[in-house]
Structures are given as C-alpha cells and as structure tokens.
Design goal:
single chain, alpha+beta, seven-stranded antiparallel β-sheet, five-stranded antiparallel β-sheet, 12 strands, disordered C terminus
C-alpha cells in the first residue's frame, strides 16, 4: 500500500558518528522516491497531514526511548492569482518570490511520553526548481540548517538520492547475464530528507554514551485515519491489523497510524513476503519476533535460492542464524553464531538483558571512531565504522548484503562469482563533508527518452567505477577477520520503492 503514497514512503535510513564532529551522531531519513527534478509546477513538498519520525532504541527492548518528530505546514503567498511555486528568482527562504514554502516543528519525545519542542516554524529548504529560479541553491540549503537548543543541528529539504544500485536486478537478476550490471538507475533522482545531528548523550541509554554506546535506529511515518493492514501484539499471521487484544485496530492517539517503517536497507523489499509487507510497515520492532512467517524468511531467505536457480551459485545451508543475529539481535559474542562484539544493545553496560528482544533495527555502536579513509564495503572492507555498524551515505549496502546472503558471514570468504556485486559502487553525487552531508538536489531531467532514443535514461551515473578510496575487496581469512566479515555481512535488506505492497 505504501508504494501508492510516496510522501509517506520511507526510502532509506542512515546513522553514523559525525566525521567532522565525532562527539555527535547524525541520523538521516529520506522520503518520496524517484523525484524527477523537473516535476513542476507543484514539485515535492512534505505531507502536511503526516508525522515523520526518527526513533532510537537504547536498551534493546524494541521500543523507542527517543523519538524525533517533524510536522510540516504549508504556506502560500498568493493562491488566488498564481499557480507557480516561485514567481521570480529566489535568493532567500523569506523571499516574496517563493510563493510556496513549508515550515516545520521538531519535537523530541522520551520513553515516558514526555515531549519537548526543539524548533517551531522552522523553514524547510524548497525543491530545487532550477538555475533560473534558484541560481544559488546552496545558499538556500544553508539557510535551512538550524541549530538546536541543546546542541546539534536540524535540516529538512530536498537532496540528491544518496542510495545507489542497479534496480534492473528485479528483471529476474538480469536474465542470467551479469554483464548487464553497472547502471545506477537512481542517478539524477531526488528525495526529501530530514536530518538531525545531536550529542551522543542525547540518544544513549541513561545519557551515558561511554557506558552505553549502542543504539538501534529506524524511521516511521504516521497518517491520521489511515486504513492499514498492520499488527498489534497478537502478531500478524493473517496480515491484518489487530490491537493488543486481537480486535481490529482503530488507530492510536487521535487516530494516527503508522503506515511506513524502515530500519535496515532492503528488509521490506526482498526479505518480507508480499503478504506481510503492509503488516511490517505498521509494526513496532518489539513485535517483530511474533511474526513467524517473516522470521522464517530471515532464517531461510528467498534471494539465495533465486541466485542458485539462475546462476548456479549454491545457496548456503539453513537455518540462517547468522542473519537472525544481523537483522534482529545485533552482533555480539553471546547473541549467536557470529563470535564478535560489534553493535548489539547487549553490549551496553546498563542494559537489562532480560528485557532485550529480537527487533529489526539499524544498530550503531557510537564508540567506533569515524574512519580516516572510509571503505565503501564497511566492515567487509575492514572498516568498522561502516555498515552494518550503522550506515554511512557512501556505504555500498547492496554489495555488502549480497555477499552476506550468499554466505560470507558464515565462511569469512567473498563469493568469487558475485564479487563485483551490481557494479555500482558510489552515489550519483558525492555527499558533503559537513551536516547535513547529503548532496544538493539534481536539476537535470532524468527522462531523456525521445523519438530517436525511445529507451531514454541517463548515463551510468558513475556506476561500475572503483571506489574513490581505492580500497580493494579483501578476503578475510583470519578467525577475527572472518568474524568481522560476518558482521559486515549485515544482510539488512532494505524495503524500497515500488516493490513494496
């Protein structure tokens, strides 16, 4: 259902220690996939009848201990005599020429439900209409980066989509021809971004990031009065929405319902079967373990079977308890078969281990320092500051996850036949060096089809080039290295775009 509601559709979540301010953590979440830059006259505002959340679980119980919420309001200067987004050149977010603009409130809510307003009537950066209308869009972006009262920064606005992959893989894995890889099918598209940078103590258990450095992160969208097929505490065996007593769900406070959810990349898209996608989008992570059919697909995933059928690469033996650890528990020596301590909340000194439950979250150990030379393969490339220990904007999660699905987490060795992955190794536009890090939005048309070139499209968008840091894919053979590779294999699978029911 969420594929039909792009303004509520989460596309990606990122969580990383800020490379230029390592005492802080940066959380980024994107919505509205496949924004063609020339999408006027309305372009791409956030929904003003939705709530956008980034949630943090510090104690491992699958429930948010900290929730940041953005709510947007539309402002139109002249709706009776104008249809234009802007009426002339826009040099400032306050310009009269910006006919349509949005502001937002940002609140933070703790685990007891206490809410504090951090920003009110804060300006969001507009969609990038183009060079004639917004000749210095970078200046508009800078005006939308705002300080927070207790330290940190907030941003809301448009950005170039940082995710990179070849989506033609869904054409039955290129029809058995791996020479077809290498085209970044997200090149040139934009997304809407909310980002927040806060001191680590603001999200750590008991405010102590030294004793309790591990957090779990996910984002959600709520809509008021939405009709959802989700789940309450009774589980979702039939894919229907239920409350704690198993009765039909009537929605939460004032009828608000969760309609979209995203933690690890690709989970909803290629792990969760079609029947349960709506239920997953409506579910809180603390209920994940109750949905047996979804847990079963983590233990016995679909993708390796497809690859075996098409390319003859043997699927690893099941049950995949390594993937259960990566997806649902975080990685620690006592969590499962991966004997390494990396990013489970069980590693927090003050956690109540009896209360920790399996929950699908993007987990980050904030004590791992940013890498001086980040490797796109994250832990797989011996870079412990990368995916699956959180997720940076340059992390090649598709290649990392493909290797993990094919057994790299079990063997400690890369599967040679699939070593090149999808051959798309970097984002279309390189992320920035300072908050909010996401690249400025694109302005060129993505759709270039015409009568002479009916297939249209953009170029490969840097797909297939070597990683800018020059790091090779290194086989990990030592015992410790093998454990790290297993970590990296964080098979998180990311639900994205139109493949979601």
């Amino acid at each position: 259902m969420i594929a039909g509601d792009p303004r509520a559709d989460n596309t990606d979540v990122y969580a990383f220690t800020s490379p230029d301010n390592p005492d802080t953590v940066t959380l980024v979440s994107n919505w509205i996939p496949f924004q063609e830059p020339n999408g006027g006259p309305n372009f791409y505002p956030f929904a003003n009848d939705a709530r956008y959340h980034i949630k943090i679980d510090a104690d491992g119980n699958g429930k948010p201990d900290t929730t940041y919420t953005w709510e947007f309001t539309d402002h139109v200067r002249d709706d009776a005599n104008q249809f234009l987004y802007n009426t002339s050149v826009v040099k400032s977010l306050d310009d009269e020429t910006l006919n349509f603009r949005q502001t937002y409130s940002l609140t933070v809510t703790d685990s007891s439900g206490n809410t504090k307003t951090l920003l009110k009537d804060a300006p969001a950066a507009p969609s990038n209409v183009g060079k004639a209308s917004m000749p210095d869009y970078a200046s508009l972006r800078n005006q939308a980066v705002l300080p927070l009262p207790d330290g940190g920064q907030s941003f809301a606005g448009q950005a170039s989509d940082p995710f990179f992959l070849d989506l033609r893989v869904f054409d039955l894995l290129y029809g058995g021809d791996l020479k077809e890889t290498g085209h970044n099918t997200l090149a040139g598209y934009n997304v809407n971004t909310v980002a927040i940078q806060v001191p680590k103590k603001a999200v750590a258990l008991k405010g102590d990031a030294t004793r309790n450095p591990v957090i779990g992160v996910w984002s959600t969208t709520d809509r008021r009065g939405a009709n959802v097929a989700g789940t309450g505490s009774k589980g979702a065996e039939d894919g229907k929405a239920r409350d704690a007593q198993g009765a039909p769900d009537k929605g939460g406070e004032e009828g608000w319902r969760q309609v979209s959810r995203l933690g690890n990349p690709l989970v909803n898209e290629v792990v969760v079967p079609l029947k349960y996608k709506d239920a997953f989008n409506a579910l809180s992570p603390d209920k994940d373990a109750s949905v047996t059919p979804v847990v079963d697909k983590v233990k016995d995933p679909i993708v390796p079977k497809l690859i075996q059928n098409i390319y003859g690469v043997p699927a690893p033996a099941t049950p995949r308890n390594d993937l259960v650890e990566i997806f649902l528990t975080g990685i620690c020596k006592e969590c499962g078969p991966i004997k390494a301590d990396l990013n489970s909340q069980r590693l927090n000194a003050d956690v109540d281990k009896a209360a920790v439950v399996p929950a699908e979250e993007l987990r980050l150990n904030m004590s791992v320092a940013p890498a001086a030379k980040p490797n796109r393969l994250g832990v797989l490339g011996k870079d412990l500051a990368g995916f699956p220990n959180g997720r940076r904007l340059n992390d090649d999660v598709v290649d990392i996850e493909l290797q993990a699905l094919e057994g790299a987490a079990q063997t400690g060795k890369i599967v040679p036949a699939l070593a090149a992955g999808d051959a798309v190794d970097v984002p279309y536009r390189e992320p920035g060096d300072s908050f909010p890090y996401v690249a400025l939005p694109n302005t060129a048309a993505v759709n270039q089809a015409d009568s002479l070139h009916p297939d249209g499209g953009v170029g490969a968008g840097l797909g297939g080039l070597a990683s800018g840091d020059g790091f090779p894919v290194v086989p990990v053979t030592a015992a410790a290295g093998g454990a790290l590779l297993a970590c990296a294999g964080a098979m998180a699978l990311r639900r994205r775009r139109a493949d979601q029911a």
